[in-house]
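[audit] Reproducing an earlier prediction to check determinism. Same input, same settings, fresh worker. If the tokens differ from the archived copy the diff job will pick it up downstream; this log only records the rerun itself.
[audit] input (213 residues):
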Amino acid sequence: MQAGKRQTGKRIALAVTLAVFAASWIAPPWPMEQALHSSLTVVALVWLWWHDRRWSLPTWQFALICVFLCVHCVAARWLYSNLPYDQWIRAVSGWSPQQAFGWQRNHTDRLIHLLYGVCFTPAVAYHFRQRWPLTARQAFVLAVMAIMCTSLIYEWMEWAIALLLSPEAAESYNGQQGDMWDAHADMLLATLGALTAWPRGSARASAPARAFV
């Protein structure tokens, strides 16, 4: 019964993610750049499906990754830096985060990198405990290191792709918005997001992986 409920929850999460992905491709304003960003989303969806069949994740960790992918799909449609979140929030609440915090740039890309750490770290740590006899804290440290390394590799890939594009297309794709420390800030936020998954409590720290289910 429990296994059936878990699978139902995962199917719903995956179906919602696929629906958001499909909706993000309705009349895209920047199809080429969006395709570049969305290619990793396709890879992530295939990986998530394959990984869960081989190394089953708890439903909440599976859903957390789907939440990240949904937000990423919306952000990729707007190439991150063009997402009109300030206009949307003002239309609903009359409050402007850009004005309130004195922001001079669009921070959608910052949110995506933060959510990468928040949403993937629990699943990565859980997988390490499935594979090896680790405590929760040992697995957590390795998971944070994995998030840091993959964030670095992503920035290298982004830089390499930008080299192949025209200067205008590269700026549009990267969404750097004139910030010379953009890559550093993105990696830092992914790391800070990962740190939110710190295992709390001594019992949880020494418990086997099934305690996370």
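[audit] rerun output stored. Observation attached for the diff report: Residues 202-213 have pLDDT under 50 and may be disordered.
[audit] end
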